[in-house]
Design goal:
- Helix content is 44%, strand content 11%.
- The chain has helices spanning 11-16, 26-35, 46-61, 78-84, 121-132, 161-167, 175-188, 205-222, 230-234, 256-265, 316-330, 332-345, 350-353, 357-371, 383-394, 404-407, 411-427, 439-450, 469-473, 487-495, 498-501, 511-521, 527-533, and strands at residues 19-20, 39-42, 69-73, 91-96, 102-107, 110-115, 138-141, 194-198, 240-241, 245-248, 273-274, 280-281, 284-288, 292-296, 312-314.
- The protein has a 6-stranded parallel beta sheet, with helices on both faces. The chain has a 4-stranded mixed beta sheet with strand order 1-5-4-13.
- The longest helix has 18 residues, at 205-222.
């Protein structure tokens, strides 16, 4: 059994081993895609193969669309050369079920894989040809939030940017430079409309893509190195749109346990490739069963009925509400609580924490009792249903290798959004009392206790990276486990910092509550467990 067009000809063998196979004529779809490409995706990583490619396959299976996907990789060309092409752009999606079972699907909806490399004459010419085609409706991206940056944190231009600014749309070197050069190709060939759709997991992602593209267009027009009118084209929403999206699907690195399952089925050549840029890719991807993709419905050249495959199309305000529902109430706060408490209680897997009756009880209280009363309700997805899925399916999934240590990264940057917004919601409501919040202030106290870098058994542990780590650790530097201390003197100034917590905790009446919890958490070994059990 080989993951190639030739290898799939023996359908009975694949079906006998429990694989779902494509139901469409791949040769016909490939020919249609070559002639009339409708969707090009930049970023050939795991999330694309597990989500967008599978969505497209379902639409092809149901005859909703006639063309498949074109994928382009502008950062690590070896993904295309060493993984996509040797397997004829075919892969296996292994869906990891929360009950411990797996679902195996052969995904063959990707018709072309290209390196977005201006030095690769053949691939670059094909990309230019695609962008000149009136049929192109969607250009989407999963290139990570960093992929849209033109400068680093120090304000220094990223590699290739200044050169691309100066040269204009000719043999670009930077990722965004390549994208904007291709968009310019579409502009000079009739100002053809298209939707530029960031599907990266970051807030207001369309604005980040727009900002980068717009700056390129402005620089080129200012320097007179592109066709006049390109900046106006980029800013004409009837021709080029930059919709917001919210994506949610966990796609871990390909797991050796999954590789063994597939190998035992008889699939050959499953060995992963580690590229020279340290990208880890395999002929298969493994992902959770739950997924959401909510998209602002702004497509100047039209679009297929992608909602037939479970995607949500709505207005920008609703996309923002879905994002806030997830980040401020239904998922991210629960993750942060489990991350901090998990580090203190010695857990190494988030899923294992959901077997802890004490933690499960507080996770449910945080989500259902404290969060839901002030949740931002987007209407298109029910918040309670979302939390049900998070608590009962997603977080307990034994296949998910997420660790509390990873999720604890950058906690100082997350508290204001993940908990501060809930506090503000209570303050804005006359029918709700801030005194009803018990787990929210506990999270803050647990974070202070976490900053001591000593677990509940009295053992030292390594804190996760955080840009404010040295700054906030100083507040607890002199606190010793089991020894009395002036809690207000130690933590008072920190708890006032609204840039961390979203509010001044004393002004909203929670400062003393956090102090009380923190003092109790520092009583000695086992104090963390005792406090958690007492709430």
């Amino acid at each position: 059994m080989k993951l190639t067009e030739e290898g799939l000809k023996n359908k009975e063998e694949w079906l006998k081993k429990g694989y779902f196979l494509p139901k469409f004529d791949r040769k016909a779809v490939e020919a249609a895609t070559k002639k009339s490409p409708f969707w090009v995706h930049f970023g050939a990583g795991n999330i694309f193969r597990a989500f967008q490619a599978n969505v497209t396959q379902n639409l092809l299976n149901d005859s909703v669309i006639e063309c498949g996907l074109v994928v382009a990789e502008g950062y690590d060309y070896e993904i295309i050369e060493k993984m996509y092409r040797p397997h004829d752009n075919i892969g296996v999606l292994v869906t990891l079920k929360s009950n411990g079972s797996v679902e195996k699907t052969v995904v063959a909806s990707i018709m072309e894989s290209l390196t977005a490399d201006s030095d690769n004459e053949k691939d670059w010419a094909r990309l230019c040809e695609i962008f000149r085609n009136p049929s192109l409706q969607i250009v989407s991206f999963t290139i990570t939030e960093k992929g849209y940056l033109l400068r680093n944190a120090a304000g220094v231009s990223m590699p290739g940017i200044e050169e691309d600014f100066a040269m204009g749309p000719v043999l670009p070197k930077s990722y965004i430079g390549k994208v904007v050069t291709l968009l310019h190709e579409r502009f000079v060939n009739g100002e053809l409309p298209v939707a530029m759709v960031s599907m990266d997991n970051c807030s207001h992602n369309g604005d980040k893509l727009y900002a980068a593209v717009n700056e390129f267009a402005r620089e080129w027009e200012t320097r007179c190195v592109c066709k006049p009118g390109f900046l106006d084209y980029v800013n004409d929403e009837s021709k080029v749109s930059f919709p917001w999206t919210m994506i949610d699907k966990i796609t871990p690195r390909p797991d050796t346990k999954i590789e063994k399952i597939l190998s035992d089925d008889g699939i050959e050549q499953l060995e992963p490739v580690i590229t020279s840029k340290k990208t880890y890719v395999a002929p298969f991807v493994n992902a959770e069963e739950c997924q959401y993709l909510v998209i602002e419905d702004k497509f100047p050249n039209g679009r297929p009925e992608l909602e037939r495959a479970g995607l949500y199309f709505t207005d920008r305000e609703t996309v923002d509400k879905v994002e806030k529902m997830k980040v401020c109430t239904c998922l991210n706060p629960l993750h942060t609580f489990l991350a901090i408490s998990g580090c203190l209680l010695g857990y190494t897997l988030i899923s294992d924490e959901m077997k802890d009756a004490d933690l499960l009880r507080l996770v449910k209280r945080l989500g259902y009792e404290e969060g839901l009363p002030v949740v931002v309700d987007p209407k298109i997805i029910k918040p309670r249903d979302f939390i049900d899925e998070v608590v009962n399916i997603r977080i307990p999934n034994p296949f998910m290798p997420d660790t509390p240590q990873r999720i604890a990264c950058d906690t100082s940057q997350k508290l204001s959004i993940r908990f501060g917004e809930t506090i503000k919601g209570y303050l804005a409501r006359k029918d709700l009392s801030i005194e009803n919040l018990k787990v929210v202030p506990l999270v803050f106290a647990l974070w202070l206790r976490y900053l001591m870098a000593i677990d509940d058994d009295g053992n030292e542990f390594e804190l996760s990276p955080d840009p404010l780590l040295s700054d906030v650790q100083k507040y607890v530097a002199n606190v010793k486990l089991g020894e009395k201390f002036d809690v207000h003197k130690a933590a008072g100034q920190l708890l006032k910092r609204s840039e961390i917590f979203g509010v001044d905790l004393y002004k909203v009446g929670l400062g003393s509550v956090v102090e009380k919890y923190f003092e109790a958490l520092c009583q000695g070994n086992g104090a963390v467990r005792n406090v958690i059990q007492g709430i």
